Amino acid sequence: MVVLKRTDAVSWVWLMEGKYQPLPRDQxxxxxxxxxxxxxxxxxxxxxxxxxAIKAGYRLFDGACDYGNEKEAGEGVRRALKEGxxxxxxxxxxxxxxNTFHAYEHVKMITKKQLDLWGIDYxxxxxxxxxxxxxYVDPSHRYPPEWWGDDGKVHLQNTPMHxxxxxxxxxxxxxxxxxxxxxxxxxxxxxxxxxYARYEPQVLQVELHPYLSQQPLxxxxxxLGIAVTAxxxxxxxxxxxxxxxxxxxxxxxxxxxxTIASAHGKARISSLNVHLRMNNPADIDPRLAIxx
Length: 292
Prior knowledge:
7 helices; 28% helix
């Protein structure tokens, strides 16, 4: 089971291989950058962002097939490794299984492809991105496959989670993933997986912020010993580019946040979008300029 503990400056994660790994709280980021999977010059954004992040001390990177930048992010990692800035075992790299690869015979194949794109031998954490199985799309035809078929429609596939999870467990057996987990799942499905899992989910990644606290789900995961990680933790900012969430007031413009900021002598942030694919993070905090 994964167990997270914290000291004043450091979070620690207990991994399946039976050791605590320190994760400094200010050394976590996710390579959610827009870029193609074509040949990569040294100055492409994803490569530079990951490489500079490692130089700045970041050690945790959260990626996925669907982000469309595995090759570039991996090149940033490989450059840092080659220059001796960091060792592979000092990095914690997460990736995710996309919906079109849920069938047992596709899980290992696509994981190996993703590892090859990253240029590494294993993922520290590999998640089922969504509990939604879609019709298989051959990577040679389209990669990332996205949600839609060639006809622009969503095509569901009847692959049960227990089939997918069995294949995920074999990734651990073969050393392709150190830990496995779930994303975007609710408690009923988490409990279902727990009934048949040889390796229980180590992590559940879900949208989590004051507008969507999901406290019962968080409490369930605590009871089960599953670590919870959040995305969109500053509010539903990442949905703006999808034309969603525009009617929701910015979380950091909320009156309660402003009151807390004033109580601590901090200026209110007038606008916030930490979605690193679309904006200049230095506008939020100069320390984030490496992501610009």
